[in-house]
Amino acid sequence: MKRIKVLIFLIIIFIENIAHSQTFYKGGDLSFVTELEGCGVQWKENNTVKDIFDIFKDNGANIIRFRIWHTPANGESGYSSTELLISRAKAKGLKVMLDFFYSDTWADAGKQKCPAAWLAVVNNNAVLADSLYNYTKKTLQTLKDKGLMPEFVQVGNETNGGMCLPGDGTVLFPVDWTKQKLLFNAGIKAVRDVDATIKIITHVSDPNNAEWYTGQLNSNGVTGYDIIGVSFYPIWHTSKTLNDFGTIITNIKNTYHKEIMVVETGLPWTNLWDDNTTNVMNGSPAGYGTSPSPAIQAQWLIDLSNKMVATGGLGIVYWEPDWVASNVANCPSDFGGSTWENVALFGFDNNLMANGGIKFCQLATGVSPITPKIEKFSLTVFPNQTSTKLNVQFNAKSVSKTTIEIFDEQGKLIKTFSVESVVGPNKFLLDIGDLKTNTGLYILHVNSNELSGNQSFILNK
Question: Is 264 a catalytic residue?
């Protein structure tokens, strides 16, 4: 019996070490940096001016994302400015994600305007696909020749309805998959032809669309990519909770064998403003109070990180955490100011908020991600082999709805329990009779507004 217990312990350590070996990526999209710096913006940490790439690297970030436009009107987010940003990130030892918009301007789930250079062939699917292939390959080959190859490449940005559309680019449904299959596969092939080791991302807006989108790619013959990138803004994307998102990750991994990464997210730390440009986002996520704060911004990102690591998600990129108010006219030029200063990870003094969202970059990762918020968390599997109950105990500081989930060792969600925790000690006996004949290792995940943690356990027949 003693030897069996030792074996079980070694198995748990072995499996957890495997899980810890997958890198969890944490960082931000810093595409506005050069334009803001040109307006005199400086960022600070502890009231000291500091290079923004150093700020993120020193706080645990390991990846930075940049957008690239074909021929932007002012040159920002074009090839030259993007190459400079990539070189700065690489110099700090940071991984790079390059996001091809396949447009001269903003492209998103509602608008995908074809670059002006390709408008003449926008309805000639074969020629348009060839143009997209050549542009993607040339861009990446140039970067590779300069030692600036990105580790991740997005083929399109928020392409729920496809990319490179005619006219003003308004997205219409149903998607023309005869065209979009050619475009997606041309971009994917271009990346592979330059460097087969690059991780390729296709990008969908809103977790609610993620499974549908992945299924559409699969059924219409889009192949060769690695990761589904998701935009998840909890103020805008309200139909799915963090628990729902964990299930979505599990389903996509199990059904389509694709990794999942949040390539855009953001939420306010205040409803106030620091310039005369109207803010586009206010409020707090459901279940996180009614008034935003740096602590709430940090907590939601910590909870998202926990959920992603527990379900095998690959990482999180915060969108434009640098976009403070410059208080310079027409900076950045597309907006005339900042619509995002209340969502950035810096206060109105341009100082990094130590108690704000940057905390998600500071966190360790693995099967038991992040320093748990739980003061005491214990799990007991009854020794009686005929028992069908799991004993879960923890202390709580407040009354809260708590979700308890059980995952198998492949990360598949097996069971979910919803309980109401009380102030002080909590003890729940969970019925796992339907698992009793399934010998193996399981991971139990506890999560609420206050609690978050994981623990492994073994079931024997």
Answer: yes
